Amino acid sequence: MSLPARRVLVVDDDEGVRTLVAWQLEADGFVVVQAATGEAAKEAIERQPPDLVVLDLSLARIGGLDVLRWLRAGPPALEDLPVIVLSGRSGETDRIVGLDLGADDYLVKPFSPGELGARVRSVLRRAGGPDAGTIRARDGTADGAIAVDDRTRDVIVDGRPVDLTAKEFDLLAFLVRHPRQVFTRAQLLRHVWGGASQWQSEATVTEHVHRLRRKVEADPARPARLRTVRGVGYRLEQP
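User: That's the sequence. What structure does it adopt?
Assistant: Structure tokens below.
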């Protein structure tokens, strides 16, 4: 069985920012909850504490710093909740205040969604927890398994290490995060390569899938793990 996806609460009064951040984090395998106000953020945290909060400072009424103070003064279940602060202010004073109040990281707008995703993963690794940084998926064989570790970029298949290129790893890790979900080649280009089929060939995806099959399948000619969904794309099988 795959591990439960980590939950991230994104708090920002700009719907465009929330949508962009949610798109990136969901592509990285996280479950994303959104809140547009400080009040909504507090309610969401009390209802079901996430694994991490991405928190904008410039919120109306209850500001981001107020939410951060509330968290750090809260019960033990909340006071250590990892927080990444977003701010449109690049001044040193704001950064110091946010970090002094207990933010785990600070990112200035405008920012790269990919960088935010990397920082979320980094903060969660530092926060620890069972299997932090490790993703696992069961496949359709009797006792076979694929284990992917984001921290070390190690891959274990049926108990043996497998050497992958950087992009082979990225492709496999993405599919492991979304077991049995079917992706078109265009979607994989966008999520894994960060591009679109208008300027990158979908044959790139096909070739990488063929290479992965030679490394993770018992019989690459009859793949049991990286399956082709005819006329659509690919999916990673699990029981």
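The longest strand covers residues 7-11.
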